TrEMBL record:
Protein's name in the database: Response regulator
Gene3D superfamilies registered for this protein in UniProt: 3.40.50.2300
4-aspartylphosphate modification, residue list: 57
Keywords: Phosphoprotein, Transcription, Transcription regulation
Domain Response regulatory stretches: 7-120
Species: Pseudorhizobium endolithicum
């Protein structure tokens, strides 16, 4: 069980990646919401005030990519933790909102759990 249980919104368009990540987070006690794209994520963010962490992929279909979603989250919820993942090896740190953790794919689940812990402690 994590020191502090987080409500994590996973935004990932690949169902298998989304489900395995969801399982890994729930296994250690986090509450997990899921979205297949940024539009679904924004729905959750409008209707739930308890989301602690948004964990998003960069590349996905829909009205915005993960970077744009992260920027919107930072604008409307400045204290929400953001973790961005991508298979892109080089991601310009200037593209990321402040206080955002980047995890390159493939990432081990313990790295994700560590990032969640760091953001919750901040």
């Amino acid at each position: 069980m994590p020191a502090e249980k987080a409500v994590v919104l996973i935004v990932e368009d690949e169902p298998i990646v989304r489900f395995t990540t969801l399982d890994a987070l729930e296994d250690v006690g986090h509450v997990v919401l899921e979205a297949a794209n940024a539009d679904e994520a924004m729905y959750h963010l409008r209707h739930r005030k308890d989301i602690d962490i948004v964990f998003t992929d960069v590349n996905m279909a829909g009205s915005m990519d993960g970077i744009q979603l992260a920027q919107r989250v930072r604008a409307i919820r400045p204290h929400t933790g953001i973790i961005i993942t991508s298979g892109i090896v080089r991601l310009d740190p200037m593209m990321l909102p402040a206080n955002t953790v980047f995890l390159p794919k493939p990432y081990p689940h313990d790295m994700l759990l560590s990032a969640i812990h760091r953001l919750m402690a901040a």
